[in-house]
Structure formats: structure tokens, C-alpha cells
């Protein structure tokens, strides 16, 4: 979740002005980049709980670390101290809530999800090889500092053992607003905030027409990514019959701001149509003079039209307000000045790399994008919406036409493979092409178990029903 800024104080005069704001994201092909974001759950390592001098003495093994003391706050500060030239602190009411990259880390950020899920928002990079190096460097930086605190990190889609009450809250003003508002609009919004982790990739577009095609293709195929990356089969220590409980949670979080908006698949979809949809997403907050004002549930459209609403009196809507507002919309593919693919569970480092590889191959090569569009347009939009409802439980075995989603995934991967081969981005050191990062997915399409199915095999086999074993086995 992005940190709000409301930096552009230009007053809004028209919807066209907002569409033009999105259109500023159009870039020439040679400026297209890949930005990968991933989240992971912190946990207390077992050996750190034993003995008076242990860093987590008295804590329960595998518990979620608090913000402070000896928790997430300390880790952030230690990361800053260890690499002072690469990071500056991000504060909320004087408390450190993240790090902003500078120097060699320019364009990257480290932030906290509501229960302390640790997120790397990667810099916009030219190749997948650069992304792999960035991820490796991040793990290498975090791992020793976390171990000194007695902590580990597990990239999983839904917390496998904790109840909602077990989870802490990070001191971010935005999350306080969401915490109060979520139960009013869905049954699982707090679960989304406190107990889910994702991996996503942010990709560019060259024009409005290019944006439309990429948005429609990626929105329709997002449920296939959910099936491929399913990695959350446990809830409070037990299987709950879902392979992606994270995706299930999103089916009733806040449907006014999430899901697969119908406007994306309409013939006249455009920057302006997306703005029109976003204006009816209920607001969370506005920023003024560094202070966040709670306006949860208010209408941005009504505010823009000059209608009186509690908490907005005397404030004029600005472009910065709308930019912040866009970060509070959670469709499966989010449009800002780039596209965010949001359908996957967090997973292993190999799967973290497979996610950007999949979408880069599909969307960054013209022939691959056209082939993906032909694949998508063969079925009506409603079929993909139904698929979104089914894949959290059935995964790749979800029926699709005369076969299953596994067949659809195989077709999708073949197109992505072609797209990456056409990009022909070869790593100078290893002399490997970007398509190598698709290997975990090609195995899945050929019948290998998903991450969720692998963990279920472990649970019913050598773990003997102890889901907490997943933490050390999945630790980065």
C-alpha cells in the first residue's frame, strides 16, 4: 500500500484533467520498466525464545513480531543504519513506517502492511535479470539483521496459524482509518489487511490504446495467475479447503473498490472511463499540511461537484488528492500511471520471479500481446468473473471449457515464453534469457503441484498436522 502524499496542489476542474493525469504514464517502448513488489510475514524463530538472553525471550515461537520493542521498528532502523546511503526514513507522526530508496536504491521502497508484513516495492528496472538481483540483494540485507532480532520471514499468501486477534497493528494513520471502515463494507477486510501477502508486478504502457489492450488481457487472465500462484491453504493452523485463501478474502473485502470492474471490458474503455469508475470508489482520507483527515465513505464525485460532505468542508479537490485516492482502489489490475498485476499470493523467491516474468512476456511484446488478446476474446467477460470466484478453491483444476484452468495456463505460458524470447534480454554474466524465470510455472502447467498443494502434502505427511512447520520451510 502506497504512502499518501497529495503533493500536487493543482485544483481539479474536469474529469478530462484526471484522464490526462493517467495519460502522463504513456512511455516509449525503450522506457518501459518492470517493478516488482512482494510482501512476507515476520515470525519469531524458535531458538530466539529460549533463555534469558534470547532476543525474543518469553515470546511464543512463530508469533508475529510487534512493531516495538525488538520488532519491526528496530529492523527498519537497523536497515537504515546498515545502508545509510541507500535509504531515508519514512515517518508517520514521528514513527518510522518505511524506507525510501536513494542512491543505488533510488526508485525502491520498503514499507509495512497493517500487521507488519514487510514489503519491498522494487525500483523500475529494465530486465528480469535486474529484478532477480534486486530481490537477492534485499534478502541478503534483511536476513542477517532479522536473525539478530530472532526473526524470520515467510512469503505466504495468508497467515497459516495466527488469528486476527493475534496480529499487531502498525502505527500508520491510514491503517487506522481502514481498520474502522472495513467492517462496514465487507466481512473479510480486516483479514485482507492483517493476514494476507501478495507479489505483484508493475508494468508500463505506450498509449491509451496500448493501456486498454494490456488492461483487458491482464484483468481477464488474473484468475489464472491466482491459480498458478496459490499459496495459502491454511487458516489458524488447519486446511480450510481453499488453495488461495488470500484470493477468497478478496471476494468480500470491499466490492465497491475491488474485483474486476465491468467498465474495463466495455468497448469504450479509456483513461476517462477508469477515472469515471474511480470517482465512485468511496474515499478513505485526504492529506493537508502533512495531516491525514478521515473522510472514509465520502464520495469523490460529490466533492468534485461541490456538494457538502462532512469532513470535506472548506477543502478543494486537487490532483494530489486524486492520486492518493487511486491508491485506495483495489481492482485485480490497478491503473495509475502504470498497471499493477494484483492477483497472486506471495510465494517462494522462484515464484516471486515467475510472476513478473509471466506478465512481462505477455504484455511487453506486440505479437505476444496480440496472441493473448485472441485467447481472451474467445470467451465473454462474465466467464472470467465466474472463474475468479472458483479458482480460490479449485486452483488449476477449475473447469474451463472442455478442460481445466491448467490448460488455459499452459496456453498463457506458451505465449509468455514467446514474448520473452522475442525480447531477447540476455544476462551478461550467466548468458541466460529471461524465459528461464518461467520454469516453475511450466512445471505447474505440466502437472506439478502448486505451492499450496505442496504444503498440504507436507501437512498430511511428515508434518503430521502441524502447520507451524511451514514457517522454517518457507523462510527466505
Short description:
The protein has helices spanning 15-23, 72-82, 128-148, 173-181, 189-195, 208-228, 245-249, 271-278, 300-304, 319-326, 349-363, 366-377, 381-394, 405-423, 439-445, 451-460, 470-474, and strands spanning 34-44, 87-92, 95-101, 109-112, 118-121, 151-154, 198-203, 234-235, 238-239, 258-259, 285-288, 291-294, 330-331, 333-335, 339-345, 399-400, 403-404. With 476 residues, the chain is α+β, with helices and mostly antiparallel strands. A hairpin with a 7-residue loop joins strand 3 (95-101) and strand 4 (109-112).
The CATH topology: Creatine Kinase, Chain A, domain 2
Which stretches are low in confidence, meaning pLDDT under 50 for 5 or more residues running? 1-6
* Architecture per CATH nomenclature, i.e. the level-2 architecture: 2-Layer Sandwich
Kindly report how far apart the N and C termini lie. Answer: 22 Å
Shape annotation: globular
Beta-sheet strand percentage?
A: 15-25%
**Number of beta strands:** 17
Pathway: Sulfur metabolism; glutathione biosynthesis; glutathione from L-cysteine and L-glutamate: step 1/2
GO molecular function: ATP binding; glutamate-cysteine ligase activity
Protein name: Glutamate--cysteine ligase
EC number: 6.3.2.2
